[in-house]
Amino acid sequence: MDASALACDTPLVAPAMSDTEAEALAQALKAVADPTRVKLLHRLISAAPDGVCVCDLTAPLGIAQPSVSYHLRILRQAGLVERRQERNFAYFSVRAEALRRLATLLDPTPQEVRT
What we know:
- The chain is α+β, with helices and mostly antiparallel strands.
- The chain is built from 6 helices and 3 strands.
């Protein structure tokens, strides 16, 4: 049998991910690899689009404000949340595009089927 007849030819439905895209996605996945940050993201996703004040996240999560701020900083550095300052209060909201990138990686449905 000819060696060329045995060549692997699996069809791929998406283009290869660039190194830059892979690095950004890896950082985002590292950021959400913590139960507290998963809870924070869940609270932010379920909140109003204008954002949530840090002071409104401490009681529902049962952790102190410095811990909430620390975890939000990690999420912000990973590009998953945005911070808006109003007077003495910091408001955080989810970056929808960043979540879409994560969802695209985690959704096994081929891209052309999703559209």
